[in-house]
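SAMPLE LOG
Freezer: B-3
Tube label: C17
Construct: single chain, 453 aa
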Amino acid sequence: MTDPRTWLTTALRLVAGIAIAVPAALLLGASPAAAHPMPHSVVQLDVYKDSVTARLALPVGDFTTASGIDLNTVKSSALATKSQAIRTYLAAHIHPTTLKGEAWQVAIGALSLSRTEQTSTGPYRELVARAVLTPPAGADVRHFTLDYDVIVHQVVTHITLVSVRQDWAAGRVTGDGATQVGTIRLDVRHMKVPPLTVDLGKGSAWRGFVAMLQLGANHILTGTDHLLFLLILLLPAPLLAAGGRWNGGLAGPRAALTRIGRITLAFTVGHSVALAATALTRFEIPGRPVEAFIAASILVGAVHAIRPLFPGKEAIVAGVFGLGHGMAFSFILAEMHLSTGQLATSLLAFNLGIELVQLLLVCLALPSLLVLARLRVQPVLRVTGALITATAALGWLADRLGLPNPVARAADSAGSHTTGMLTVLALAAVAAVGWTLVVRQRGRGLPELGTAT
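STRUCTURE (predicted):
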C-alpha cells in the first residue's frame, strides 16, 4: 500500500506544476501586443513630382535595441553627437527601388527627439528622421518597392505602418491624417522581412486642382481674421461721414453697392497679387510679422467702423492691407514644396477657392448691411460689432508678438464654427430681404438713420 505521504507529495507537485504551466501557457499563447503593448514605427510619405520624402517616427527603445546606438539617455541637445551614426544606420536599412529593381537614392536629413503616445502604449520617446527618396531619372515616383527593415530585423515583433500624408497629384494636400498603404513586419513563415510594394495609383493635375480649390475655400472659411477684416471694412460702407463721425446720412443703395464692390475687389486684387508674387518667386517671409500685420489691419478697420479714419478711401486701404493677407495665404503653398507646374496650377485653384467663398460671404452679408444702415439701432449694433472685432484684433496682435492669451484662442476657435456662421448670415440675409419687401408692400418709406456716433 502506498505511503500517504507519497500521495501528498505527488499532489503538491501536480498543483505546483499547474500553477506554473497555466500562466506560462497564457503568456506564450498571447500576442506580444496583448501581453505588453509596444509602440510601432510610423513612416509617412510626402509624394512630390520627382521624389518622395519619408518621415520616420521610431520608438527610441526599439531603435536602440536594433541599432546598438544608445539613445535612451540622450537628450535632444546632445543628439548631434549621435547623428552621423544614426544616418549611416538608417541609410543601410532603407532601400527603395523601381519595380524593375533599379535603386533609388536615399538621403537622411533632419533628426530630432520627442515624446509621443500611441493607443494603449502610454507615453514614450521617439526618434524622428526625415529621408528623401529620389528615383532614377524618368522612373515612376508613384509605383516603387520599399525594402525597409530599420528595426524589425532585430526586434522581430516590431511593426512599421507606412502611409501617405501628402500627395498633390492624388488630391491629398492638407497633410491632415494619412492614408495607409501597407505594413512592414517579419514574415514568420520564412523568417524574412519582405519589401513593401507601394502603389499610389494614377495621379493627375485635375485632382490636384480640385484639392487646392477646396483648400482655398476652407482656408478663407476657417480664417477668422481674414473674414473679420473684410466684413469690418464693409460694415460702414453704406454710411456717409461728416465732422469725423458716421452721421452724414446714407450713401444710397447704388452708391453703397459700388463701395462694397470696390472694397471687395480691392482686397481681392491686393491679396491675389501678393499671393502670386510670393508663391511664384518662392520668396521666404517671416511668418510672425505678417500675422501681426494682419491683426493690426483688423484693429484699424474696427476703429474706422467706430470713427471714420479714411472715409471714401476704404478700397485703397483694403488693397494695401490685402497685400499682407496674400502673403499669409502664400505660407500654405510654400509648405507643400511643389514643382513649378504644380505651383502655378495650385495658385490658380487656391485663389479661385478663396474668391468664390469670399463672394458668397459678401452676397450673404450684403442685404443685412444695407438694411442695418437704415435701422435706428444701427449705431449701437455697429459700435458693438466693431468693439468685439477690436478686442479680437488686440488679442491676436499680442499673441502674434509673443504674448499668448485667451482672447486670441477664443477668436481662433471661431473658425471651427463655419457652418453656424454661414447659417446666421443666410438667415440674416433672408430676414433683411423679407423686411425690405414687407416695407415696400406697405408703401412706407424705410426708417430714417438713427443718431450715429
